[in-house]
Design goal:
The complex is a heterodimer of chains A (90) and B (288).
Chain A: H1 2-26, H2 30-55, H3 59-83
Helix pairs in contact in A: 1-2, 2-3
Chain B: H1 2-19, H2 23-43, H3 47-71, H4 81-101, H5 112-117, H6 127-135, H7 137-156, H8 169-192, H9 200-216, H10 225-248, H11 261-285
Helix pairs in contact in B: 1-2, 2-3, 3-9, 6-7, 7-10, 7-11, 8-9, 9-11, 10-11
The chains are: A mainly alpha (90), B mainly alpha (288).
Chain lengths: 90, 288
């Protein structure tokens, strides 16, 4: 029963990744792409956690933690380097 | 279905990254490419590669690319149609070769078996780190040397460009809040390298990410410049000193006695951890 539940969860997360990726590709501005890619990062961490629940392999948790810690930093770095330019606003 | 979706996304992000006119857009798509290939390595159960790809490919390389793009005036390269056709032909041939070659490979034991047989002689329980630090210690030593010299060469250029930062109270408190967690987790990853997936390079890169974040919030580390220089040289210095020490004791260069090898390797990992972190941090800042 739980396996089916996690399988369904995995399916939803992959769907989330795919739809987020469509946004990344279409995103009219570069900022939209970057925001959607942060969503992808969160989805990836969730995907790893769902895989951990299915396989009971503890390594997945470490990978998910790595994702979670650095995804935020990437967003901030992008924002400061790209948006602090007077040409691009802010 | 998961693997199929990941593969499609990987290919299309690589395509966009290569074809976009805007270099910054290429950088963003390169980040996504790194992140997706990290997930694919996870699916292939290559956890060591996945960890490196997640930390370096989808974060640290991204910082460096963003900064590089912002600093350069050049637009994306224009590639002639002839080059494109040539590259396309070579890739098509390679793809066809792999398509017919891959199904014919049979699973067989290669030198990997030797590593597992001799693992008890190395002092660590993780096969990757046994190869990296013990069996092929020379290679790793020289790699550390190459990175160290590259960054010192960068420092010798004396870049005058001002570092990017944003003087924002929210960002400052957030970076102060996040840094301890990153330091702790990177130490954990480094220590974990002795037993399973992890290692000094990965942990150091993670710490470098935290330090870059710290620097972006216009905070400076309470360290003297000479101390940062010392940290940068620690990995190369300590590694070669240990090698020489055991050579003088009669064990041979970079050959560790069995009883002390675990302890020695942990100390070597710690030294590589701190120097990788500060080397990448300096590479990002461009100056001390």
């Amino acid at each position: 029963m739980m396996d089916i539940l996690y399988g369904f969860l995995l399916f939803l997360l992959v769907l989330n990744l795919l739809l987020g990726f469509v946004r990344v590709l279409k995103g009219p501005e570069l900022v939209d792409s970057m925001m959607a890619s942060l969503l992808l990062g969160t989805g990836g961490a969730a995907l790893l956690l769902a895989l951990f629940k299915m396989t009971k392999e503890v390594l997945y948790i470490n990978l998910a933690l790595g994702f979670a810690l650095l995804a935020g930093v990437v967003g901030v770095v992008f924002a400061i380097i790209y948006l602090r330019d007077p040409k691009n606003g802010v | 279905m998961l693997d199929f979706a990941l593969g499609i996304m990987l290919l299309s992000s690589a395509l966009v990254s290569l074809h976009s006119k805007d270099l910054m857009k290429s950088g963003v798509f390169f980040l996504i490419f790194g992140f997706l290939s990290g997930l694919i390595w996870v699916r292939l159960e290559a956890f060591d590669v996945a960890l490196v790809e997640i930390i370096l490919g989808s974060a640290i390389t991204g910082f460096l690319i963003f900064k590089l793009v912002k600093g350069s005036k050049r637009r994306a390269l224009r590639v002639s149609a002839f080059t494109k056709a040539w590259a396309g032909l070579v890739s098509l041939l390679f793809f066809l070769f792999m398509l017919f070659y891959l199904p014919t490979i049979e699973r067989q034991d290669r030198v990997g078996r030797l590593v597992y047989e001799n693992l008890h002689k190395s002092g660590v329980e993780s096969a990757v780190n046994a190869v990296l630090l013990n069996f092929r210690g020379y290679d790793t030593l020289l790699e550390v040397g190459v990175i160290t010299l590259a960054i010192f060469g960068l420092l010798a250029l004396e870049l005058k460009r001002e570092a990017y930062h944003w003087d924002n109270p929210l960002l400052q408190s957030f970076s102060k809040l996040l840094l301890p967690f990153i330091v702790f987790f990177s130490l954990y990853i480094t220590y974990l390298g002795t037993f399973s997936v992890g290692g000094a390079f990965q942990g150091g890169a993670l710490l470098a990410g935290g330090l870059v974040f710290f620097a972006l919030a216009k905070q400076s580390l309470p360290l003297k410049k000479s101390l940062i220089l010392l940290f940068m040289a620690t990995g190369l210095g300590f590694f070669s000193l240990v090698g020489l020490f055991y050579a003088l004791l009669g064990y041979g260069f970079l050959t560790y006695p069995l009883k002390l090898s675990t302890l020695t390797l942990i100390f070597i990992e710690l030294s590589i951890w701190i120097s990788t972190a500060f080397l990448l941090y300096t590479a990002y800042k461009g100056k001390l």
